Amino acid sequence: MSAETTDWIARHAETLGANGIWIGEDIGAGQDTAVLTAAILLHSRRVRVGTGVVPISIHNITTIARSSLTLHEIGNGRFALGIGIGGIQDLKRVGIDLQRPVTEMRETTRLLRALWRGERVTAKTELISLDGYSLRLRESISIPVFFGVRGPQMLDLAGRVSDGVILSGPFEYIEKAIGIIKRAALQERRNPSEIETVVWVPTIPTFKGINEKTAKRIVALVVADTPKPVEAMLSVDHEKLARIRNVVASSGPKAGAEFVDNEVLDAFSISGSKRYMVEQFEDLSSIGATEVVLSPPHTGDWKGVLIELIREARRSVS
Amino acid sequence: MEWGVALNVVESVETTVANSVRLERAGIASVWITDFPAIRSASPLAAAVAEMTNSCRIGIGLLSPDLYGPNHIIQQVETLVDHFGKRFDVLIGPGDGPALERIGVDRGVGAAVVKRTLKAATQIRTQLKDSNCECRIFLGAQGPMMIEASSSFDGVLLNYSDEEMIEWSLKKLKRNTQDFVIGVFPPTCLEPNPDFDSSESIRRAAAMVALGLTRSVWDEFGLESSLRAGQRALRESGSLDDAVIDVIGNETLHRFSVYMSVSELCEYIEDLQRRGINLVVFGPPLCKEPSGIDQIIEARYLCGT
């Protein structure tokens, strides 16, 4: 996204009626997440601004801790840190092969919180090596940590230690994921309702500007990127999904789109008419989503789409 | 002479932004937002400074490619320019070796560090120029390799304040364009009645710079014995404590700092200008306390250069 686009979103989010802005990080591509988050915090006043997500595998933990402190102060407490491991393919491309990702997420979260409490930290893990590092804080700060994770073990960990989760995937998966998180929270003697559930799925406004062909192409790409543990949790025809994945890999998303039918389209995206999309948001709310992210692709009249969709959602709530 | 002031050691975002606004109003041409081992990240903080200031240049760094990687540094600069305009400079250098080691960044030693940093800095320069990102790229330099290589960039920030060291650096420099900026970036403390021996903060800052000096130039300036003893003490102690600073000795430490009264500073600046220096960035501990901001503003007014 261009700086002009993100700046427009920052400046209009509140008047549109949005509660938050979430900023994704593509490893090695796009705008710098910390600077972009700073810009959005500076150009908005009340909305929460979160990263969704910063991959812990490619940043030194002190960089994450220091950036978060800086953003926490810039936003007067409106910043939320979303962390994840990073996409498997992206990590392979940069030569990272993490052996114990769940342990790394747990330790990173524990150590970040210790640093924000002003503690001096010494730790050694697969990703982290700290020798008496401290942020030299006079007062403890509290920054909510969201997990952008997918597999069952990670979801379980999220239920035990995170302040919130950012879920992405088919509806059926999201429902099951929320169940895993709640169970883990209860086992940990936590109140599950204290864990926020942000759902971030492709929202494809076929009612305005994007035709169904494009929607199917986008979904073909999403299917191809869906990890095996997520697919395993679905009742959608696995052979159908495998065919889409293989065709995308061999001939690209346009060819893959030929095999995306309405069942797959509905499972992997929120698309259709304005009313239908809002009904799907309501369905997500009914299964436990506390926030729904209207996600890219923002093409065509994306500003008009945002305005109409949020207005419709607000009307529906009231 | 372009005046710059380095901010961001342990101060809050609010304090750094307020100081930047005051410095800009006082005619300071550039504020430099330091990075690791500073506690707050330079790039998002630079965004906050840019939002509240209008015309001053904003330097970020020193950014170490060993901590961020060249691509991440490029992303940071491009995003700042895209959102806040063509006001940014970036300082690239190897960074504080012992501090980086303590957070798991193993830099190695010797010429390999310099070569790797130069390779990364060259990639950063090439990609930023290719994408028409209008920013100045400086090398932070002390040793001969970095100083000589800096001529391919927009400028150099020398970690020297001492007359002999600056002259030596200038001889090493191969300035190839008139626009090339030669800057110095000394630890600074301005006092009405300077008493170096009893000033803990300036001695510590000077010790950090002195201990980072390339061994190949120890002899050049007669620092072999004091810095060798200092490095041995640092290895034994594990941290830059008073004992290590004492071992280095005040005579050596003084050569790595600007510690003087405001009126003496005016003469110092004139001297730098005569030597061909066209940027001075006053470094920590100057602005750790509000009085440091008052003093540099007073100096800017009095010196008038």
Describe the model.
The complex is a heterodimer of chains A (318) and B (305). Chain A contains 14 helices and 12 strands. In chain A, a hairpin with a 4-residue loop joins strand 5 and strand 6. Chain A starts with a helix and ends with a helix. Chain A is an alpha/beta fold. Chain B has 305 residues and is an alpha/beta fold. Chain B contains 14 helices and 10 strands. An 8-stranded parallel β-barrel of chain B has the order 1-2-3-4-5-6-7-10, surrounded by 4 helices. A two-stranded parallel ribbon of chain B has the order 8-9. In chain B, strand 5, helix 7 and strand 6 form a beta-alpha-beta unit. The N and C termini of chain B lie close together (6 Å). At the A-B interface, helix 2, helix 3 and strand 6 of A face helix 2 and helix 4 of B.
Major beta sheet summary of chain A: 8 strands, parallel
Strand content of chain A: 5-15%
Task: Indicate the structural class of chain A.
Answer: alpha/beta
Count the E strands of chain A: 12
Oligomeric status? heterodimer
List SSEs of chain B in N-to-C order.
Answer: EHEHEHHEHHEHEHEEHHHHEHEH
Q: Which regions of chain A contain 5 or more consecutive residues with pLDDT less than 50?
A: none
Average pLDDT of chain B, rounded to a whole number, is 92
With strands numbered from the N-terminus, the spatial order across the biggest sheet of chain B is 1-2-3-4-5-6-7-10
For the largest beta-sheet of chain B, the strand count, sense and barrel status come to: 8 strands, parallel, barrel
